[in-house]
Amino acid sequence: MTQPEAVARDGEVAVFTFDHPPVNALAQPVRARLLAAVEALDADPGVRAIVLIGSGRNFVAGADVREFDRPPLEPFLPALLARVEACGKPVVAALHGATLGGGAETALACHYRCAAGDLKLGFPEVSLGLLPGAGGTVRLPRLAGWQASLELMTSGKPIGIDRAIELGIVDRRVDGDLRAGAIAWARELAHAHAPPRRVLDLPVPASRPSQFEEFLRALPAAARRLPAPPRIVEALASAALLPADAALARARALFMECLASTESRAFRYLFFAERGAVPDVVLARAVGQAAVLGSGTMGAGIAISLATGGIPVLLIEAKQEALDAGLARVRAAIDAAERKGRLDRDEAEAARGRVQGSLTLAAVAGADLVIEAVYENLAVKRELFGRLGQLAKPGAVLATNTSTLDVDAIAGASGRPADVVGMHFFSPANVMRLVEVVRGRESSRAALATVHSVAKRIGKIAIPVGNAFGFVGNRMLYAYGREKELMLLEGAKPEVIDKALVDFGMAMGPNAVGDLAGLDIGWQVRKEWRDKPEDPRFYRASDLLAELGRYGQKTGRGFYRYDTPGGERTPDPEVVELIRAEAERLGVRQRQVEPGEIVARCILALINEGARILEDGIAASPSDIDVIWCNGYGFPRHRGGPMFYADTLGLATVVDSIRKLARAHGERDWTPAGLLVTLAGAGASFASWQSGRAAAADGGGRQG
Ligand code: 3HC
User: Whose CA is nearest to atom 41 of ligand 1?
Assistant: First the structure.
């Protein structure tokens, strides 16, 4: 009998290997190969047991997400897994690394499961706006029970080997060679005449009728409003009530509903947009040692990211006390990551060992990458880069973490501007994944590629941006904030604005964010901002509060009061009165501002500014803008980002709405961007514009 593709034989044990780099997603050819293999091996009298294993770093990372936007192709995964489960010979899944979504469902369709110590098993479908659609909702509870299934599937968080064994999902751990261990076990099972142990034949665990409803009610309101979490709970509830076949059909129908939702489209779009740009590894210079200048919150956060990401880092400060505080902050964060299980003991120990401190700037001489994170002042940074230009070794990349200053002005002072780039981290830098990589006028491609590849190595999402005031994220933030500040003067209370935008899906309201960041920060920036808009109403409410020493959380007073022991926000009538008096002074008539208007003005301002940024070439694509806003500013992922959201509204509607706002509030702030008008006129979208440009660049590249 000829050997099916991807199958190897070890005596009476056949081994099927998923070999579809980079992550063994279950693309159509993989499904076809597995189906053909199972059919052939089931019929082959020489085969007594089958092992399924993954090549490379993991077992199987799930369905191929790219296929979800195309017409479905046979064999479909649920039917394929039913065929695996129906196999008359014991099928052993040998799991390692990412075993996610459809990959975990494949494991559940096997009769026995063993795994290596690096297992990461989970159901991340929820973060794609989906539910496990290939039998997971019906099979998993039969092994792990209802509560664990509800938690695993609604959280999307993966579990490790110990928990997987504890829950009964994995039968045994294999230390050493996984393939050899799995084959040995399969052989044992065959010799013991062990029957195929089908999960669907296991008894349905008992459940309380109200259990599912209670679980759903306890989910955060934002999760309940999305399509997937309630449907996951419904699919599991159906599995508790219905016969397996009916429950499988119900889960599949719910999966198809999720798949068709705008929210899932948005999540899938972000999944690929966040993985879009791949660093040029050929151009990137090797970075074996980094240095961070400044050990404040930002500098320490960057040092934590580098150390936990595997890059040795020297933290440099001018004063011993500040350096000690910075190093203590780094250690405390690594300890906390270890306590919470995000790093195991060895990883935490290695991360701690990667951090050193120094009080001498000359110590940068050993670094391949220097990241400056000192006080936000151009003169200070220019002076520092002048010295760095001399002290850093030739070829070292010099990055500034400025969020508002001109990268070219900083680069010019270094005497080696080709080595200088901006690396704009978001606070807290060890938590936030976004980094805007700022291209200065003279930044070399090698310096940009180096920074991009370091960002990727330490698990960040690096988005290239041009050097203009506020780069991409903060420039748009100013447009968004402009409108909320105007609406404060027009009579909208801070908490009403925040609620409207949180209801829209923003992670936090803009006034609460201002209080958290400190109202003095933006106030200082606006004081030094030379060509800021000439409008006495511009950010007047924030500046007024800052002038009064109401800096936000750190002073216990800002847009809100923070006087409870837990530091919760309390609306403050004094703020409403202060702003009312200021509005009167400025001649702004106060009125009732409805939540719909709040959302429309803030979000349309974002979209319009985003379109201008594209026109100016400061961002390379609409999806880069969306990644920045979803990862740096708490824009709701289920809406895909401001530009994706604009497409879902329709660009003609967006332009009409902006023109209506122009009639009510003037054209200075509300002239629709030329790009928006052009695209709306052509019946196009940001997405079609982006793919048109990509195709043109591709064609150009081929011709060239
Ligand atoms: N489908 C298609 N492509 C995938 C993919 C998937 N499920 N998972 C990863 N990829 C691609 C990425 O797009 C990336 O492609 P690129 O190199 O062209 O940019 C490449 O694989 C590597 O991915 P990462 O950059 O994310 O690599 P990491 O090493 O950082 O992470 C991972 C690996 C943990 C496997 C991560 O990729 C991941 O979490 N993947 C998604 C897993 C997932 O969501 N699975 C569920 C899918 S839905 C499903 O299974 C439905 C089922 O119930 C029917």
Answer: 61
